[in-house]
Amino acid sequence: MLVGASACGGGGSDKASGDDAKASGKPSASASPSPTKPAGPPMLLETITPQTGTTVGVAMPISVIFTNPVAAKARADVEKHMKVSASQPVAGAWHWMGDKRADWRPKNYWPSGTTVKIDADMTGVSNGNGRYGVHGYTHTFKIGDDVRADVSVTGHTMKVTRNGAPVRTLSINAGSAEYPTWDGTMAVIDKQEKVHMTSCSVGISCDKGSPNYYDLTLPWDIHLTQSGTYVHYSTGDPNPGSGSARGSHGCVHLSLPDAKWFYDQVKQGDPVTITGSPRGKAPADNGYADFNLGWDQWLAGSATGEQTTSAL
Fold it and tell me: What is the pTM for the complete model shown?
């Protein structure tokens, strides 16, 4: 999972840091070091997400985190050595989020049932800053059922679909006027049965006497942004919906039974799309909000442009 704030994030950072995937699991090496060691220290990958062998949602990008900055002049060569293959061909592209993170996403969502493979053959590849790759890395994962959640902040509803068919409409409360929820599409980062959330951790309030202070461990948590947005149950808002005027500190609140049901439905990479909030769209690197960039914006951050996946 992405490393980030552990609460609703009304006052958290709007941007994810360059090393925001350090907790997402170690990449698996697929090649031995080159027999001829290039000059300079090694260029290594911190993580590749999704982890190999996992099943993820249709909005999940491939996210590669480098241990050291990659210079702009080296990015085209690095991209060319990170080959994406799929059992169903899709158009997509790499996009750099700072100098340590590169994400590959399809132009549109992945087709459900697709098997995807990334071969990052970094052996001998320069990062433009005096470092050279000494390993290859391979991850293979699968795209599962097309599960989507569409949240209306003003309508106090969340509509859940699976493979295009409506499943349930749930009552929700989103952020207050003071602490609005992020708009846009955010792919699920991860989920946890319990998360310890504090107002201090996201810069809302560290004053125990403040009405906005909280220090709670809450259940059935779906993680949406690194700055601390979750879909979950809150003891302070047990019956969310249009009849409740109470807003959150930026999270999306469900009742306890609905939170448990939703937790059981979703997986990493499923898109949660929020509309009707005045805050605007979450930045693309605030978790996996890659689809908040239009395709032209996405290509503007690519060194090699649009490509079609190789056959797998």
Answer: 0.87
